[in-house]
Design brief:
Elements lengths: L18 H8 L1 H5 L8 E6 L4 E7 L2 E9 L8 E2 L3 E7 L9 H17 L16 E5 L6 E4 L2 E3 L3 E2 L11 H11 L9 E5 L2 H9 L6 E4 L11 H4 L1 H9 L5 E6 L8 H4 L6 E5 L5 H7 L6 H13 L3 E6 L7 H8 L5 E4 L9 H6 L8 H17 L3 E2 L11
Parallel strand pairs: 6-10, 8-11, 11-12, 12-13, 13-14, 14-15, 15-16
Antiparallel strand pairs: 1-2, 2-3, 3-5, 4-5, 7-8, 9-10
Helix pairs in contact: 5-7, 11-13
Length: 391
């Protein structure tokens, strides 16, 4: 069902998402394989930002990502259809072991043999400016490391930051399913049955940290006001031993501050890439005002949440002023650059800040912000392993 009408009744049940079946056929030998003693095994797989597979052997967790083939981009290797990237899940700079290289090679060879059978589904021309599709899914949690899961209540994001680097990977998933090509920020899949699927899974899986949402959506985007998928997922996690780690750039999260406060441990992160709301309006016109994000951080902190901030991408700002505002509200901050900046150079031009599109600007501004935060006792952390911040 596609549209913006009311949530469907049982008699008008949304379709089961076909994408999982399509990718499941591609990965079938791996999904059905019995792990070899002492070898790598499948820990999890995902279909919402291209094809992602997590392999594990002991304490070595390897993420393998299949993206649309693009010979201009560096990658681990290529197939006829995909660029393949492979790295350690929580330590991208650490070299893969010989056994990991072998396991990744076997996975890639399997995909090479089977990718020709992927269905080629014609993509229709868009018939509307935006699309909200209600779907059912069969899986909720994806394991990404020891005691780490992630959960996407939605796929796509109506906040629609033009600089978001997931757009091409998310479009590959739409291409595999034969969905119309729409700009990032103009489509969302709503997983209407996700809270019920999640409730079944947490009854059988080992408890751990549940990250919501890593890249491909924002759990508190505008549609959450209507569907409350994120809230219902949080309700399903209460008193289960699972720990939510919720990352958003939406102030709406403060509406759930009391619910978040019911968890023994919980982490909330807000994206705050600048202290200047005029800058925010140029780069994140669909995002909430900066002051509202500070208020949301404060509300969640008062509720007992561990609070963090993500300054990514580093936008024009006053580093001292931003550090002074963040320091009383957060335990840690991630600082990172604008990726693929040439693609969004026009945003800097429109803001009259082409100087901020340079590596020199990033190094100077990030360095000043880091120094100002550390001087106030705030930890600078990549926020890849949220468990360490919860201790």
């Amino acid at each position: 069902m596609v549209g913006t009408g009311s949530i469907p009744s049982v008699s008008d049940e949304p379709p089961l998402r076909r994408l999982d079946q399509i990718v499941g056929e591609l990965l079938a030998p791996l999904l059905n394989a019995r792990p070899a003693p002492g070898g790598f095994r499948l820990a999890g797989w995902d279909v919402e930002q291209g094809v992602c597979v997590v392999l594990v052997r002991g304490d070595e967790w390897v993420l393998v990502e299949f993206e649309n083939r693009d010979d201009t981009r560096d990658c681990y290797t290529r197939t006829s259809r995909f660029n393949v990237c492979a790295r350690h899940q929580f330590d991208p700079e650490k070299p893969l072991s010989a056994l990991a290289h072998r396991a990744v090679g076997q996975l890639v060879e399997m995909v090479r043999r089977r990718e020709g059978a992927l269905p080629v589904i014609p993509r229709p021309a868009p018939t509307r400016g935006s699309e909200v599709r209600e779907v059912r899914v069969e899986r909720a949690l994806v394991q990404q490391g020891p005691g780490h899961y992630y959960l996407n209540p939605y796929v796509g994001c109506m906040i629609g930051c033009e600089f978001c680097y997931v757009a091409d990977r998310a479009d590959l998933s739409r291409e595999l399913e034969g969905r119309a090509k729409l700009p990032w920020g103009r489509y969302v899949d709503v997983k209407v049955n996700l809270p019920e699927v999640l409730a079944r899974e947490v009854a059988t899986l080992p408890p751990g940290l549940v990250r919501m949402s890593p890249i491909v959506t924002d759990p508190y985007q505008p549609l959450e006001k209507k569907y409350r998928i994120t809230r219902r997922c949080l309700e399903a996690l209460v008193d289960t031993g699972f720990t939510p780690g919720v990352l958003t750039r939406a102030a709406r999260i403060q509406e759930d501050a009391a619910l978040l406060g019911r968890f023994r441990r919980v982490l909330v992160g807000l994206s705050i890439p600048t202290d200047d709301d005029e800058v925010r309006q140029h780069f994140e016109p669909g995002g909430d005002p900066i002051e509202e994000r500070f208020a949301a951080l404060e509300a969640c902190q008062r509720a007992g949440c561990v609070t963090v901030a993500v300054v990514q991408p580093v936008l024009p700002m006053d580093p001292e002023r931003l550090a002074a505002r963040l320091a009383p509200l957060v335990r840690a901050v991630r600082i990172d650059r604008m990726y693929d900046g040439d693609r969004v150079r026009h945003l800097y031009d429109a803001a009259g800040r082409l100087d901020a599109a340079t590596e020199e600007f990033y190094q100077q501004t990030a360095g000043a912000l880091r120094a100002a935060l550390e001087a106030r006792g705030v930890c600078i952390d990549p926020l890849d392993d949220l468990q360490t911040l919860m201790q």
